[in-house]
Amino acid sequence: MTATRTPAAKVSEVPRGGMKVVETGGLRIALCNVEGRIYAIEDVCTHDDGPLGEGRLDGFEAECPRHGARFDVRSGAVTRMPAVVPVRSFPVRIEGDSIFVEVQHGA
Amino acid sequence: MPATAMPETAGWLAKARERAWSDFKRLPPPARTVETWRRVDYSRWRLNLLDGQAGGCSTAVSLDPAVLKQGVLLTTIEEAASRRPELLEPHLQAACAGLDYAFLETANLARFKGGAFLYVPKGVRVEKPIEIPFLQDAQAEFSFPRALILIEEGAEATIVESHLSQTAGRKASSVAFSRLVIGAGARVRYFYDQTLSAETVHFWHQQADLGRDALLQHYSVLLGAGVHKSELDVRLSGQGARSELVGLLLGSKSQQFDPHTVQWHQASKTSSDLLFRTALKDRAKSIYTGLIRIEKEATGCDAFQQNNNLLLSNEARADSTPVLEILTNDVRCKHGATVGPVSQDELFYLCSRGLSPEEAAKILVMGFFEPILSKLPLDHQKERILGEIEARL
Amino acid sequence: MSSHSFLQDLKTDYQSKYGFHDEEKYVFKAKKGLDRGVVEDISKRKGEPAWMLEQRLKAYEIFLSKPMPTWGNTGLLNAIHFDEIYYYLKPSDGAARTWEDVPSDIKNTFDKLGIPEAERKFLAGVTAQYDSEAVYHQINKELEKQGVIFLDMDAGLKQYPDIVKKYFGTVIPAMDNKFAALNTAVWSGGSFIYVPKGAKVALPLQAYFRINAEKAGQFERTLIIADEGSSVHYIEGCTAPTWSADALHSAVVELVALKGSHIRYTTIQNWANNVYNLVTKRAVAYEDAFVEWVDGNLGSKLTMKFPAVVLAGKGARAEILSCAFAGKGQHQDTGAKLTFAAPHTSGTITSKSISKDGGRASYRGLVKTFPQAHDVKVNVRCDALLLDDVSRSDTYPTMEVGGDRAQIGHEASVFKIGEEQLFYLQSRGLTEAEATTLIVNGFFECFTKELPLEYAVELNRLIQLEMEGSVG
User: Which residue of A61, A84, A87 is the best one to mutate when testing the C interface, meaning the one whose CB has the most C CBs within 10 A?
Assistant: First the structure.
C-alpha cells in the first residue's frame, strides 16, 4: 500500500450525503461522506465502465445514475444489479480536515 | 512550444489550409457519447493546445531513377500541389473521414508539413516497394502525417507507410490521414506499420477506393504508441473489386488500441476478406470493431471477416465487435471472432521439449502472427518489426 | 390438439377483482396519458402495500427523466405517442368488443390454424370467459402438493409480499432503462412463480394457467424464483396471432436461479403488426444454476428484446436460443446478453432469423467476461436467412473479454436459399413455395424442437401460412 502524501481533498469539500470525485494516486476516486465519515471507491461503475461519482449516495450505497447499479461504499461490494462485480474501495486516513486515500499501486 | 514556420505552398493549397484552420477553430468536437469516441478519450490528443505550429514529422521519400523514368511521381504534397494541382485538388478539398473525425482532419490539413504524394500512371508496374516513412520529430508535440496515393488504371505497386519516433520520452500527438485511390484493374500491396514511442498518442485514418476489378492487399502492423486509434475504410465501388485486409496487433504494458475497419461493398461482384489478429499481455487492451456493409445494389458479393485475439495475461482485455449490415440477399457473408489463451496443448508440448513457458508462449505468438509477418516485403522493416515484437514478448 | 385446451376461466368482474363494495361512489373514467395520479390510482385500486406505491412513484420520476434510446430503430421508437396510451383503465373495458371488430386477417389465421371458435374469441380479446377452470384447479392441486406458488403478479404481491419485496426490482431496477422504469410505474399482471428447494415441476407452467384479467397485459411484470436445486419450465405467449388495441407492450421479466436450480423460459410472441413490443428480460444464475431462454419472435411492428443472463456463481450455465421472423413492415431487433462474473461458467447463444418482404431482423448481442471469471467458455452462433433482395439483416455482436483461459467464439453468416437446394427439392416434385417452406422449417428446426409438441406443430403451420402469403 502506498499512502499518498498529498491530501486528496478536504473533509469540508465533500458534502454530507454526497460524493466528490478527485484524482489521486493515478486514479479517479469518488469520496463519499456518510454522516460525517469519509469512504473512498473508484469512480468506475463495473457495469458499464462509466463514472459513478455523478450518481447519488443513498445511506451507505452509491448509485450509478445510468442503470441503477449500487455499491456499498464501505467495501465496494455490489448491492444491486446490473452490476455484478465489486468496485475497488480504498482505506482512508483523516488528518485534521485532510483526506488521504491509500491507493495500492499494481504492477 | 517551438513554432515551426509554415512552408511555402501553392496558392490553392494555402487557401485550403486556411479554410481548414478556420473550420478547425470553429467546429465543436464530437460528443463523448458517439459510438466512435466512446472507448478512447479524444482529449488525449490535446488538440486544444494546437496553435500556429506546424506538425513535426519528416518524410524522406525518394525513388529509383529507373522508376522515375516510368513516370512515377513521389514527392511532398506541397511540391506536388504546384506541379500537378489537377491530381491533388479533388482529393485534398473533400473531407473523407466523416463528422466524428472532422476536428482531426481539419487540424491535419491545416498543419501538416511536407506530406507524401505518390502517383503511378496507367499501366506502370513498379517492382520495388516504395517507402513512405513518417518519422516523428523529437522536438515536436504534434505531428500530422499526410499521404495521398493515386494508382491509375492497370498499374501495380507495393507501398510501405511506416510511422516511427525519433526518440522516446517526449509526449506527442500524431494525427495521420492517408488516402489511397486505386484505378480499374490496378493492383496494390499496401503496408501500414506503426512502432511509435510509448508516449505518443496516434490516430490514423485511411480511405481506400477501389475501381472496377481493382485489387488491394493491405497489411497493418500495430505495435507502438500508448494510445492508438485507427480506421481503415475500404470502399469497393467498382464492380469486381477485391480487398484482402490483414492486421497484426501486439499490446503490452498499458497500451490501448482502438482499430476499426470497414469493408463497404457498393458495387456488384466485389469481394473482401479480412483477418485481424491481436495478442495482448500485461494490462493492454484492444477494442477491435469492424463493419461489413453490403448495399442493395451490390449483388453477388462475398465478404468475410475473422478476428482472433490471444490473451496472454489475466489483466489483458480484448473487445471485439464485428458488425454486419446486409441489404441484399444475393450474398455470401460470414464473420467470426475468437478470444482465448495460447493453446494449452501446444504450450505443454513445447515445454515438454525443454522450453520455458515464456519461450514457448513467445513461439506460439510468433506462429499466431506468421500469416502477416511472412508477407513483410522489406528486410529493414521486417527487422524493425520483429525487434519490436521480440522486445515486448 | 390445440394447446389452448388448457385455457382457464377468467373472471373480469370488476367488483371481485378490485374489491369495490360501493360502486356507486366510483365513476370509472378511462384516462389517456400518464401522470402521478394515474400511478397512484393503479396502486390504490389494487390495494397494494405502501412500499410498492413508493417504488411505482420513484419509477415514474425515473421514466420522465430518462431520454429515449439513441440506438436501435429510433425512427419507430420516436413515433410512440406516450400521451395517447391508456396505461390502465381502457374505454373498451365493460363494453365488450365484438367479433366483428377483429381484423379479418387475424380471423383467417385462426381458421387456418384450426383453433376452435371459443378460443379464437378469447385470443382476440372479445371475451374473457373460457371454460377451463376445472383444468386450472386440477393443475394447481399438483403444484400445491409440491409447495409451488404460481399466481398472477397482483395476487402474488397480495399473498406473498415478503417474497416479492425481497426480489422485485433486484434483477432489473427501474433505472435500468426508460421502459423498465415505465413498467415499474404502471405494471399490472404477469406471473409470480416460486419453486421451493428441491422441487422439480414436471409440466411446463403456461401463462394461460394463471387466473388473470388480461391474457396478455400491456405492462406485464413477471418474477420467477427457483430455490436451490429446483427446476421449472415456464411458457408464455402463443403461436396464434394476438391482436391488441394497445400500441405499446412493455414487459419486464426477472428470473432468480438460486444454487443448483434450473429455469427454462420459453416465449413465443406473435403480436399483430401494430404493436411495439419492448421487453427487458434478465436472469441471475447463481452457483451451478442453469438458465435457458427460448425466445421466438414472429409478430409486432417493432420488437426490442435481448434476454440476458448474469452468471454470478461458480459453475453456472446459460443457453439462449432466439428465433425471429421479420416480414413486411416488421423490425425484429433481438439478441442475447451473457455476463460472466464467476469462474468456470459457460454459455451458448444461438440466433436464427429470417427476413422477407422488406422485413428487417437485427441481432444485438453482448458477451462480457470479467477478469475474476476465469475458465469461461462461450459460443455464439448467428445465422440470418434473407429470402429476397428487399429485406435486411444486421448483426451487432459485442465481445468484451478478460480473465485467464477465457475461450470465446463467435460466428455469424448471412445468406439466401441456395439455388441448388431449391432445384433439388423442386426436382422431387415440390413447388417453389413448398420447397422454400421446407427449407425455412429446417432452418428453424433447432428452435421448434425445443417447444412443446402442440406449439411446434402450430409454428410450422404458421410459417407455412407466411410463406404462402409471399409466393404467388
Answer: A84
